[in-house]
Amino acid sequence: MLKVLAIMGSPRKGKNNDILLDYMLKGIKKEREDAEVDKLYVSDLVIYPCIACEECTRKPGCILQDEMNHLYKKYDGADIIIITSPMYFNSVSAQLKAVIDRNQAIWSSKYILGQPLIDRKKKRLGYFIFTSGDETGCAGLTAAEPIINLFFKSINAEYVGNYFVKGSR
Ligand SMILES: Cc1cc2nc3c(=O)[nH]c(=O)nc-3n(C[C@H](O)[C@H](O)[C@H](O)COP(=O)(O)O)c2cc1C
Known about the structure:
Mean pLDDT: 97
Low-confidence stretches: none
Strand order of the largest sheet: 2-1-3-4-5
Radius of gyration: 16 Å
Distance between the termini: 36 Å
Number of helices: 5
Helix content: 25-40%
Largest sheet: 5 strands, parallel
Bound molecules: flavin mononucleotide
């Protein structure tokens, strides 16, 4: 079975990111009948922003008790992780950024505590869907790519590529 974790990072359901994500998921299912898709809307989840308390450097995990705890486990089980975001001020949405920052607990578990919250040997593939309202939008993609790169690194996924759509309002 191929486990696909799809994280929809726009607060707008049924709009550009949601449509593109569904399109990609449809393609995956067409290619792989055994694909099991877990699609999440970040705007539906209660995910607090990181408060830099550094508790994750003392004990594996995050002290904030919210739905991020489910996400840590979901990353671990996934073979493919797709994240999507609208471009907001040349970066990702605040909802998705909160998720990304909370991956600090995984980073600490690996690089400080040596007690990884995630199987570091498992092969995972990461894809990024990104949309901009602007017709060019390339500065935003250049700015977002290093952020997404670190996100995928933190969950030991290979950042395979972007699906960037400009001029989408
Ligand atoms: C707060 C906010 C900031 C935005 N910043 C940018 C931007 O910097 N560059 C850009 O091209 N579009 C910007 N946009 C437009 C969105 O990126 C664009 O409409 C996107 O495709 C919306 O995706 P969605 O329909 O999936 O929500 C912004 C929109 C909002 C609401």
